[in-house]
Amino acid sequence: MKAIELIPGVLLLLALLAGCTEQAAEDPGSDPAMPQAEAPESRAAAIQRATADIDGARIVVAEAENWLSTGRTYDEQRHSPLDQINRETVSDLGLAWYWDTDTRRGLEATPIVVDGVMFTTGTWSVVWAHDAKTGELLWEYDPQVPRAWGRYACCDVVNRGVAAWKGRVYVGTLDGRLVALDAGTGEPAWDVSTIPPDRAYTITGAPRILKDKVIIGNGGAEYGVRGYITAYDAASGERLWRFYTVPGNPEDGFESEDMELAAATWQGGKWWEVGGGGTVWDSMAFDPELNLLYIGTGNGSPWNRYIRSPGGGDNLYLSSIVAIDADTGRRAWHYQTTPGDTWDYTAVQHMILADIEIDGRLRKVIMQAPKNGFFYVIDRTNGEFISAEAYVPVTWATHVDPETGRPVENPEAHYANEKKRVRPGPLGGHNWHPMTYHPGTGLVYIPALDLRFDFAQDNAFRYVPENWNTGVDLMATAPPPTVEENLDNLAAIKGFLAAWDPVGQQEVWRVQHATAWNGGLLSTAGGLVFQGRADGRFAAYAADTGELLWESPTYVGIIAAPVSYSIDGEQYVSVVAGWGGAYAVASGAPRHRDNVLTEGRILTYRLNGDETLPQPEVTYLAVPTPPAMDYAPEQLERGEEAFHAYCAVCHGPGVGTSGTITSLLYASHATHEIWNAIVVDGAYTEMGMPDFSHALDAEGAQDIRAYVIERTKGMIAFCESSYREEYPELLDTACEIPQVTGS
């Protein structure tokens, strides 16, 4: 851990103070009664003082100059009242400072900014404190997450940020701990494990703090866990209450009436052996007046309801918004967006609280665009359904019944007996990337996805803790046999920024993006919506029309949400940039041609900022010729099946292209020579590459290598053909991997 030593002048100050003390002791003529000059306050002490009074009252007041909670305020609107940067002045926006994180993989954090100090996180749950005006690093805390734990991070080794409260900064770590840090120094105050030792839980979400309680959930449904959310005492780390989201084994009894009620909706099967799922891995919101904490819950474990609950049932509280009494941890009400989910349609996506007029009546609502593709408006006082309409193309359901609030499923989306193509896919119509609500326009802005997926039942399913346990035959996701057909599929992947009217339940305007997996959003009183994009650019759009008013290159894809704050009367906009996450790791889609850097950075802008980013010097490396290997067709068939069972989740279907994890299409001859040592024996475990000795022997590993070599040969042949002219942007990274040689 790096801490105080990084704060300029502190060591010198301590040395000078020590020297003065020694001199006073040696000088008999000094008068101890004489007034002494007050020692200047250390930077660490100043930070501690600035953060000491952060509590719920300050977050509710929502002081414009700071960003005190991950959604800025408890209502999670992610709207800044600052307007110095506006439609007229945004053209003068320039870079104030940047800081290279020296990390690879995805960066998803929303920074917290307190009186000129920025706290944020990076990969492997590392925490940084910066001077928010200059970018100077003040301290760093590394929780030393074992790299082997990365195998359980279904969607990259990411972290979405910290919480600040009464002089401390709180972070959840990938390996399931909750850590309280001294805000001034980064030194740990306490560190508690929030998970049982026998299940593969992770934490990637940001904690929330209310009424001196630190609230944290977790992930890991694909690896077989039971979801819950826990409140800890902010001062001591003592566990105060826990709310389970799905029932355990009924023979063991129930922790509460809520679990007994839920168990009646799980029919048949032994879901508790595979965990059940329902993890609370991201979004939360809080209404102080109602004293209700709102959580979103995840998919089932396994995904496939025909295996998880073969007798049917809604499977509460999967894919639900649940309102919880903040004092007791008891359920107040729930609304399930996808009863009996079988498509990985989590409801963990960003939730926004607002008071809006509907049919002439002011309603206290909670709004969400979960994965299933419908935008929901719910009464947050009691869970009453108000309305829902599709915000992206949806084929799994025809509509949401306005009387019951239940989706009407399309029988053609049921895949128990045959493969079915369904929209949205498991990445959803909207994933974790935060939305924003602009009170001035009355619109919600959604970083939307238009993705499809081929589902098929895994009839040979058995629970294996080290594997993905979806109950879905992942061979159904294997790309077509020809590269041309696969690129047609990739070209169909779309992402866009949608302005959505929650009252009229309709899209007002749309900005179509070059590719998918674009960043979270910030709206401001200056009439702007800010978004970082997957094409390596940071942009500002007019909140009323969607007109592009300003953009700047960042050279790396952005997925996190920006924030805005002010120091000495000057407004800043800051975003954490770093390509990664589920889509970038596992989709197999190539990155955009302007998204060339593999390392992340923090970027901060102000009017007339005069800092410049170094322009990368990029060369492109073609797919290399693989080593010679003799293999039979049946070996390729076994290798394809094993690859999609064990490898595709990180390396992409069909061996993928160039995501955040280097494509196996570019595996060196040296890598091929030690293939079994890596895949079976765990030679790279400490680098985050797990071993698969539980599932593969030496022969099985070589089957996979044969498949990788065959796919590499096919890609080389395709890239040498004239067909690539139809995909100029796509193929810049499908056929060539960017190599940054300097700047």
How would you describe this structure to a colleague?
By secondary structure, the protein is an alpha+beta fold. The chain is 16% helix and 29% strand. Strand 34 (528-532) and strand 35 form a beta hairpin. The longest helix is centred in the last third of the chain and has 22 residues, at 698-719. The radius of gyration is 26 Å and the shape is globular.
Task: Name the features.
743 residues, alpha+beta, four-stranded antiparallel beta sheet, 12 helices, 41 strands, globular
SSE inventory with pairings:
Blueprint: H1 10-26, H2 43-51, H3 56-61, E1 79-80, E2 93-100, E3 112-114, E4 117-121, E5 127-131, E6 137-141, E7 163-165, E8 168-172, E9 177-182, E10 188-193, E11 208-210, E12 213-216, E13 228-233, E14 239-244, H4 257-263, E15 276-277, E16 284-287, E17 292-296, E18 300-301, H5 305-308, E19 320-325, E20 331-336, E21 351-358, E22 361-368, E23 374-379, E24 385-390, E25 397-400, E26 407-409, E27 420-422, E28 436-438, E29 443-450, E30 453-455, H6 483-491, E31 494-501, E32 506-512, E33 521-524, E34 528-532, E35 537-542, E36 548-553, E37 563-567, E38 570-577, H7 581-586, E39 601-607, E40 617-622, H8 633-651, H9 669-673, H10 675-679, H11 698-719, H12 728-734, E41 736-742
Parallel strand pairs: 1-33
Antiparallel strand pairs: 2-39, 3-4, 4-5, 5-6, 7-8, 8-9, 9-10, 11-12, 12-13, 13-14, 15-18, 16-17, 17-19, 19-20, 21-22, 22-23, 23-24, 25-26, 27-30, 28-29, 29-31, 31-32, 33-34, 34-35, 35-36, 37-38, 38-39, 40-41
